[in-house]
Each structure stands twice: as structure tokens, then as C-alpha cells.
Amino acid sequence: MPTFLSRRPLAAFAAAAAALGGLLLAGAAPAHAAVTLTQVSTDPFTNSTSQHATELEPDTFAYGNTIVTSSQVGRFTDGGASDISWNTSTDGGTTWQHGMLPGITVYQGGSWARVSDPAVAYDAKHGTWMVSGLVIDANVNGAGVTVSRSSDGVNWQSPVLAVGNNGKGYDKEWIVCDDSPTSPHYGNCYVEVDITSSNNLVVMSTSTDGGATWSAPLSPSGSRNHGLGGQPLVQPNGTVVVPFSTNGTSIRAFTSTNGGGSWNSTKLVSSISTHTVAGGLRDGGGLPSAEIDASGKVYVAWQDCRFRTSCTSNDIVYSTSTDGSTWSAVTRVPIDATTSGVDHFIPGIGVDHATSGATAKVGLYYYFYPNANCTTSTCQLEVGYVSSTDGGSTWSAAQTVAGPMSLTQIASTTQGSMVGDYISCSVVNGKGVAVFAVGKTPINGQAFDEAMYTVSGGLAVTAGTVPAATGPVVYTAQTANGNAEFYRDAN
User: Fold this and answer.
1) What's the pLDDT at 69?
2) Coil/strand/helix, residue 158
3) Rounded to 5 degrees, what angle do the CA atoms 111, 451, 370 make?
4) Which among 67, 122, 41, 118 is positioned nearest to 458, based on CA atoms?
5) Residue 400 and residue 402: Cα distance in Å, rounded?
6) How far apart are the C-alpha atoms of 344 and 381, rounded to whole Å?
7) Bridge partners of 174?
């Protein structure tokens, strides 16, 4: 159980910060606190075709005190992994059980060559935990979406096929269930995935029987329905809101008000402008991370450089909506000063589902480089955490949770070194709980030692005094026709 010293990214907070609208002053020494990490899982596979020991790209979901997480295990260089893990805690993240999902890949009694993109959901009506995965065939083609089910998060059934296995290509699925007993669609579960062979056409499939069977896929209406990384969320009234990335150029969202019977046209959340992360790190292309509070307010976070002069590094930013159609101005999470030189990316936002509005508890994990202007050999990758107790109006001081790690200590892919295209946070009992990939110096002749770690019991969601800000926006990228990239429309 290794111990890391917590080091905040370069920032110091002065009394004048609030008057400056959240633009912080740099210069003071960072605070230090001890953070103890617990390793929750490890790669058990030995097949020579994928990289060992590697684990990456985790998702989490919490219901009550139970938290289930999943991750890729044994990453192939050109896509996918040997299997998907499950890691389950029944005491709010203090202790964990661990294993591999059965019946998906050939390495665990299944028929698929590989699997990727794990996501977790819980169906309260049917008492069923679910982990979805993108199954990959022998030609390294994303062939469809499987759903593995469990009544306790520990004993898992072989998967059912939700979408695909029809000759089309698929990528980056996600899953969610309607857990509000007052919803007219209580117990419905929804899978999102995009069809790569149709220019990343976004589709949705619905289950009404605890994930045992799934409907034929449907797309949002209209023409602006191509992208990836859609993360569906369900409001207490049963409305499903699905934010997604339009292949890295903007965030859009669409809704269903009839339990997935049809899907409305997409609406613009915001355009995106990002700083290219140094060192060839694979950062998921700025996929959104989305969560929802008790009232149904949706938070969507992503990495963006609009608040940094000349787009020299990324902040974590977010927008909110109460209906999935109208979205707030993009807000910067004030992790450090806009002049700090720190690059922030791959956010995982979590909201306490028992809180809402001005008292919503928000936790945010993310990866960062202390120096955005680093190289493949010098970049130092770290994991950070910051939180808010007032729905994101103000934020706590940030702290470093894990690292530094070099890029040679994490899995190698054809798209760069990889800790995952996304991470996740669940807020349980006032604490932000996440599992995340940490690379260490390998021992015993291994090529890697990249495993899943957590802070036992999570990190407290604490009140802060650093205000979030919606401006000034100092970087507006230009499109090919010379128009400003940042815009809002009615579509």
C-alpha cells in the first residue's frame, strides 16, 4: 500500500482572487498532505499478444454504499484488452473485492478476441449491476456492445449482446439505468454507442427487463447526430439526457422523454478548443464526463484551453442544464492560475445523488502535467482532485493524489501512451471515490506495472473559497473559414 505525498499544482490563493473573478495568483509554495493509495486490482493474464501488467480506463458507479468499478486489463497496442475487470466495494470504498468478467473474451471463457471501453450501471428496479463493454473481433474491429450482469457486484453472468454483431463497426459505448421509483420509465436501462462504419452515427438501445434483452438501435432525429463518447443520464422525471462529443469539435446533447421510444434532435452545449497534450499521451480527444444531481441538473465536464492565452494548456471546464436543451455558459474549474503552465485533462466528475442545486456536492478527479511544455522523455503525469460543496460556485484547493509517473510506465498504444480515454468519480457519504491507473517502475522482469489504485474510503468533498469563472475567454480558435469557433445556436 504505497504512500504518495500530495502536491498541489502550482498556485497560491490571495484575498484578491475573488475580486478577480477566480483568476488566481501564482507564486506561493504548495500545501502538502499525505495520501495513502490502495491497489484494488492487478492484471492476471499472461498471453503474449497484449501488454502486461497493464490496467487502464476505469469507470465507477455507486448505489448506496456499494461501488462497482471496471477497467481494461491487459491492453493490446492496437486496440482493446484481454478482458474487463470488476472491482466492488460494499462499504463506501474502504475495502474492495476484485475479479475478471467471465464469458467475454477467449482469455476468460468467451468467444471475442478482445474487449474495451468498460462502463458501469445499476438497475434498482431489477436489483442488477451491469458492466457494458465494446467487444472486438479478430480483425480488431469494434463489433458491438455486450452487457454483463450481477445481483451483487461480485458474481457475474456471461454477457448478453445488446447492440451489434451485424458486420458494422462500433466504438465507445456507455450505459445507464433509470433508478427513480417515481419515474414513468423506472427500470429502463439505456446503452449509447456510435457506428464507426456510418461516420460515427450515434445510436441508443433500451432494455426494460434488467438488461436481459435490448431494443433495436435508434438515432437522435436531425442531421447533427454523429460523434462519440455519449454519456446518458436519467432525470427523476424519466427524461434521458445524453451529452456527447462531435468528434472533438463540440459537445452536443439530445434527450428522450418517452423511455427511449424516440430521441430528439441534438442541441449545442458548447464548441471545444483544446491544447494538444504533450508527450504523445492518448487523452481520449477530450471526451466529456457527465453526472447528475438529485434534482436532475446535469453537469458535463471536459478539457478546454479557452481561458488560457494562446491555448498554452487546458483547464477542466463544465456546463450545466436542467432540461438537456438549454445549457449554461462554460465555467472554468479554478484548479490553479491560468498562468500556471499546468495542463489538465481526462476529467472524471462526480455528484452526490442525494444533493442538489446550491448545496450539490461535486468531486472531480483528473490527470495533469505540472509542466504543459514537456516532452515524451520529461513529462510527469499525475492525478489530481478538487471538490465543491455549493454546486460548483466555489472550489476547494486542489491536491495531488498520485504520481508523478513517466510515460514509459504506462501502456503503449498506436495512439500514444495510455491511462485511458476517461476516468470516473462517484460521490458517496460526502467523499469522492475513484479508481485510476498508476504506472510504477516494473519489477520481476515485467514490461509494465500499471494497476488500478484508489484512496481508501475516498477523498472528502470540502467547501472552498476559490470562485469558478465563466470569463474572460482569452482564446478563440479560428475555423477554416475564419469564423470564431465559440458560438451558440438554436439547433
Assistant:
1) 98
2) coil
3) 130
4) 67
5) 6
6) 10
7) 192
Mean pLDDT to the nearest integer, 48-60: 97
Name the nearest CA neighbour of 424 among 462, 404, 450, 452: 452
Q: What's the pLDDT tens digit per position in 241-260?
A: 999 999 999 999 999 999 99
**Mean local confidence (pLDDT), 115-139:** 98
Residues 6+ apart with CB under 8 A from 48: none
Only one residue has cell 432525429, namely: 221
* Nearby residues of 122 by Cβ (< 8 Å), 6 or more positions away: 61, 63, 66, 68, 128, 129, 130, 177, 179
Q: How do residues 366-421 score in pLDDT, each as one tens digit?
A: 999 999 999 999 999 999 999 999 999 999 999 999 999 999 999 999 999 999 99
Strands 343-351 and 142-150, sheet pairing: unpaired
Provide the grid cell at 290: 457527465
Grid coordinates of 215: 431494443
Separation CA 141–CA 155 (nearest Å): 29
Confidence of residue 476 (pLDDT cuts 50, 70, 90): confident
- d(C-alpha 330, C-alpha 469), whole Å: 9
Task: Say how far apart CA 393 and CA 300 lie, in whole Å.
Answer: 15
How many residues are present in the chain? Answer: 491
Residue 48 has a CB neighbour count (10 Å cut-off) of: 6
pLDDT tens digits, one per residue of 174-197? 999 999 999 999 999 999 999 999
